[in-house]
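Ticket opened by: R.M.
Priority: normal
Category: complex prediction / small molecule

The reporter submitted a protein together with alpha-D-glucopyranose and asked that the result be attached to this ticket for the collaborator who will pick it up next week. Submitted input follows.
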Amino acid sequence: MITNTELENKGNLFPSKIVDFKKDVDQLYFYTDNDVILQLTVVRDSVIRFRYTTVGNFDNDFSYAITKYANKGYNKLEITGSDDHYLVITSKLKCVISKENLSVSIFDVKDDVLINKDEIGFHWEESYEFGGNIVKMSKVSNDGESYYGLGDKPNHLNLKGKRYTNWVTDSYAYGKETDPIYKTIPFYTGLHHGRAYGIFFDNTFQSYFDFANERRNVTSFWAQGGEMNYYFFYGPKMNDVVEGYTDLTGKPHQLPPMWALGFHQCKWSYFPEAKVKEITKTFRKLQIPCDAIYLDIDYMDGFRCFTWNKEYFPDPKRMVKELAEDGFKTVAIIDPGIKIDKEYRVFKEGLEKDYFCKRADGAYMKGKVWPGECYFPDYTNPEVREWWSGLFKELIEDIGVKGVWNDMNEPAVMEVPNKTFPDDVRHDYDGNPCSHRKAHNIYGMQMARATYQGLKKYAYPKRPFVITRAAYSGTQRYTSSWTGDNVATWDHLWIANIQAQRMAMSGFSFVGSDIGGFAEQPSGELFTRWIQLGIFHPFFRVHSSGDHGEQEPWTFDEDVTKIVRKFIEIRYQLLPYLYTAFWNYVDHGTPLLKSLVLYDQSDVQTHYRTDEFIFGEHILACPVQEPNAKGRRMYVPKGKWYNFWTDETVKGGKEMWVDADIDSMPIYIKEGAIIPKYPVQQYVGEKNIDQITLDVYYKEGVEDSVLFSDANDGYDYTKGRYSLRNFKLTGRSKELIINQHKEGKYITEYNTFKIVIHGLPFTIKEIEVDNQNISLEQLIQNGTHTIVVDKNFSELHLKE
Ligand code: GLC
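Result attached by the on-call engineer:
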């Protein structure tokens, strides 16, 4: 990492001994003899920020990643000292800071177990070329420690033994070893001795993480400039670490409209209008549910953003309206590059207002993208963001487009070696002027933010929907994302699975891959297996480059169409379950997908698993990722699970073979779960849903489940007009009780629950609803374990 051999310089520099200490409410300052200051901020009892300067004072404290809505405040803060160290104690953590060299060790305050310890700790190297420092941190890597997180890295889930770079990069046809790719999320979770902690290195310069790669017992991170500035989160549960990080960098500002959780069909490009209609009509004809249809760059006039090719799309407003009447929401792409064209309104405005990025010596930042030579708005200027958001008025308010897809916002530049802006490009950085070295990693985030602001304004009273390719920590507040230009190979199915899980444990759950692969063409089998995985990804979209033939569910053969339809239908049935999980994510920061290690860190078998994951709280899924498979081996986590297809139960905690021919995949439901389901619809809102099915999976014991409902769009839910139903299932050998606790003012569309009981070990002889005996004939349908009850029941009691 760490030594620069090319330049004669001072090499690594280190803090000397602490000579002074100051406390300012929640901020503690430790001053060393050689002008280093450690500013330690107690954010919460389990969250501590460490920030270092080497010049005796700090720069303006500004971060795009941290949300103003982050929870702050602690129960306890005690500072004591001895001859050789300071002790900072909260109700969760004990921090020991060495007076000799400023090094930090962090302990669980309850039992004094060491969680994380500086190795060399903070050190730095002066940057000859750019000024400032290359800032470095090294930590001890503990025996058996594992590492997770870092956003979209396409390699093994467990980062141990690897080194990574963070530099948002357009990475067409990347592979497992490609690094870096599209996103920078400098947050990881460490797990050792059953306890998890997290580190978020909030530094937007190019940064690096080394997880015991260079040296077996050392993990380090460093950046090309800026401050050593990191947040430490303590679990000990991994889920709490991820929630803590998500709380700090932000949950999505609102729920997505429910339709955005449906199926999306995309290609580069569907045009002209007749082609778009042919696609949407075929979905309806073949009865394959679909909610969104995409317009890629060819809808524009010469790739000029906010224009239309009137030859292909003579009347976009009419087209979008007609699509909407058929249940399709139109999503349109918008890139950052603005074509240099004196006749083009957006270009003219940007130029007049001085909104485009410039080089260090004042020339415009000129770069080639799809439209040819372009200038690029400086989205790090709030005035530019405001202007950009206003550009969406016509597209959204007038034409009726429902979602916007931001692409190429790394920013990608063609035909240059580094694929992006040169380092010297200047940025406003919200009043903290800087070069592209510092702004690069957040450029795409700020574009997506400005786009989000536009959609929020003009889609009102509906909720916005945005997708972005580039992202930095915190981008999840504004937008969903996809994993960029992947390839139609089996390897990429594996990668897609990893990336969605990894993004979820990096605070960014609303993610999916280009299903089927963007480049090249999948076989029908690969496409089918990818759809099977895709139904469990929060963002569920087929996209392809279009160079290699068609990639719609019907372009392979009839069997593929049939199986794909069946799986998309499962997704539509699970919408209330997914929507509830999404609400939980928005409300608590709980990841929508949980890798097995996140689900059960106490089971060491999970630490190196990659394929299996939990969707929401109760569904275990494991995609088949090899050709010609009739099933696969998978690890079923501890506990009892129901096979989704057969209701057979298995006891987990072991690896097992699971049959899964091409029309199936391994899906299990946790015992005790109550899974809410919709009837199949062709699109969200197609049907008036007066009944929700509750699939109840018997358990001897207790289990909680939740159902969240609202109007599926709009902001009323933020004013209390939602319905939150907590179900508590209690199973005994001869009875099953479901208690319901209701909250919220929303009157749901549905009036009844159809309760389908799986795995009941006894025959129902008696049913009580809210302590009233109800005749069996009235409730039990078709001699099966199916009962219809009023949605507002408080207690349902089934007895032998
Ligand atoms: C980029 C995007 C891809 C899009 C294409 C054309 O390659 O990643 O999704 O289809 O540009 O706009």
